[in-house]
UniProtKB/TrEMBL annotation:
This is MFS transporter. GO terms for molecular function: symporter activity. The keyword Transmembrane applies. Pfam families: MFS_2 (PF13347). One of its GO terms (biological process) is carbohydrate transport. It comes from Streptosporangium minutum. SUPFAM superfamilies: MFS general substrate transporter. GO terms for cellular component: plasma membrane. The chain crosses the membrane at residues 56-75, 96-114, 120-140, 161-184, 196-220, 241-266, 278-297, 306-324, 330-349, 370-396, 416-438. Keywords: Membrane, Transmembrane, Transmembrane helix. It comes from the Bacteria.
Length: 460
């Protein structure tokens, strides 16, 4: 009988799972208080502050909110590239986080603490301050978000890590979204006080994250691309990233319109500006209560399936809001609660899927480019979120919305109120529906990341 002498091949041991220590999880999570607060407060109040306190025309106010974010398309990838290349005793990401912590709170407070100006001069002042704020925020946000993909290579460990992050996101949005309007009120002095208090929250959160991530594990060091153009080329080469970018932009565009429209919806549809706080509580409350459920759903139905469910809930809730004028405040709050449950899901899943995309790119190309992908993703996210406010501002301006200050309130034309109702509800519903369609094309799963070779066909 013929015998074949086949040498025994001993497989290489699988790399040990890197588990992120609880202290680092908490420290990293606290840092999201600043990102959530900064995303929430200007998105909720800045447009309304300019049109109803500083008497800035709505179309100009929309531009002021939007144009500084266009700068993010350049500054965010640049920060990602530089943080990929940084070598220091503090690590690659943390020096940039510290720079952001020392500059963002000051710039934010100045945005709402300007001289006694109204109209176009007030708009110019806010535009300059908000431009500086956007730059300072990029210094912190891009390296902070890139760290998640560098702490562990495990698919489900990333969701667990980000679950801690989202708990702090929920707390921050809850406190800032409910507290900031209450402190700001309807007078310029209230907005000035609000700016100072929020600036203090930003400072404490960012410094806590800087200190809390000092012992964060790093599974591998990121590699920098040589130029901004090369960063865009690298991003375009990843099919999963481009799909994620598309669905995330659709969702953030929808959220930007909804958030900017909330004060107008409360004031002109429900007839009570104070309901801005209760509506916002319905949006952010689920962030605190449903995170474990969304993590379970992402394990049970994969992140793609859970994302489709979250976006569908968001779309259904916003579409149903068009009937709020007929059915009243209680009905509106129930609709917004459904929106909040869906919003909680795609907030968690966007970040977790971004980390998966970064890991997939490393498996396919052999390169670590966390800063490249995070920089471009955060830039697009913030631009389209601000674009929501721009679109709403232009819609209000086109339908005759009248700017005012607290001393001279005005009645709004019926067309403007209709624009608040339909534009602020149906447009977000449509965009969330588009994100559902895009999510069906997202290819990454736990199994595909374990064997990434078949996914080469989606590259490019």
């Amino acid at each position: 009988m013929l015998r074949l002498n086949v040498p025994m091949v001993t497989p290489e041991p699988a790399p040990a799972l890197v588990t992120v220590p609880r202290g680092v999880r908490i420290g990293y999570g606290i840092g999201s208080v600043s990102t959530a607060t900064f995303s929430t407060v200007p998105g909720l109040l800045l447009l309304f502050y300019m049109t109803n306190v500083l008497a800035v025309p709505a179309w100009i106010a929309g531009l002021v909110v939007f144009l500084p974010k266009v700068w993010d398309m350049l500054i965010n990838p640049w920060v990602g590239q530089r943080s990929d290349r940084t070598v220091s005793r503090l690590g690659a990401r943390r020096p940039w986080m510290l720079l952001g912590a020392l500059t963002l709170p000051v710039a934010f407070a100045l945005t709402f603490a300007g001289p006694p100006l109204t109209g176009v001069p007030a708009a110019l002042y806010v535009a300059v301050c908000y431009f500086l704020t956007a730059t300072a925020y990029a210094f912190y946000e891009v390296p902070y978000k890139a760290m998640a993909a560098e702490m562990t290579d495990d698919y489900h460990e990333r969701s667990s890590l980000l679950q801690w992050k989202m708990v702090f996101v929920g707390l921050a949005i809850l406190l800032s979204g409910a507290g900031a309007p209450a402190v700001a009120g309807t007078e310029a002095a209230g907005y000035r006080t609000m700016g100072l208090l929020v600036g203090a929250v930003l400072l404490v959160s960012m410094l806590a994250a800087f200190a809390g991530t000092a012992r964060a594990p790093m599974v591998a060091r990121a590699e920098a691309e040589p130029s901004i153009r090369a960063q865009f080329a690298a991003a375009r080469s990843s099919g999963p990233f481009m799909v994620l970018l598309g669905l995330s932009c659709a969702q953030m565009f929808a959220a930007g319109i909804l958030l900017a429209g909330a004060p107008y919806f409360a004031a002109y549809v429900l007839g009570d500006p104070g309901m801005t706080t209760t509506l916002f509580l319905c949006i952010v409350g689920p962030l605190l209560l449903t995170m474990p459920a969304w993590v379970w759903l992402s394990r049970r139905y994969e992140k793609r399936g859970a994302m489709i469910l979250g976006a569908a809930l968001f779309a259904a809730g916003t579409a149903a809001l068009v009937l709020a004028g007929e059915f009243g405040a209680v009905y509106a709050h129930v609709c917004v609660l459904a929106v909040g449950i869906g919003y909680a899901g795609f907030q968690l899943l966007q970040f977790s899927m971004l980390s998966d995309v970064i890991v997939h790119d490393a498996l396919v190309t052999g390169k670590r480019r966390a800063g490249v992908f995070t920089g471009l993703w955060t830039a697009c996210e913030t631009v389209v979120f601000a674009f929501g406010a721009l679109v709403l501002g232009w819609l209000l301006g086109a339908t005759g919305f009248v700017e005012s200050d607290p001393g001279t309130p005005v009645a709004q034309p019926e067309a403007a109120v209709t624009a608040v109702l339909y534009g602020g509800a149906l447009l977000p519903a449509l965009l969330a529906g588009i994100s559902v369609l895009l999510t069906t094309r997202y290819p990454l799963t736990a199994a595909s990341l374990a064997t990434p070779e078949p996914l080469r066909s989606v590259e490019g």
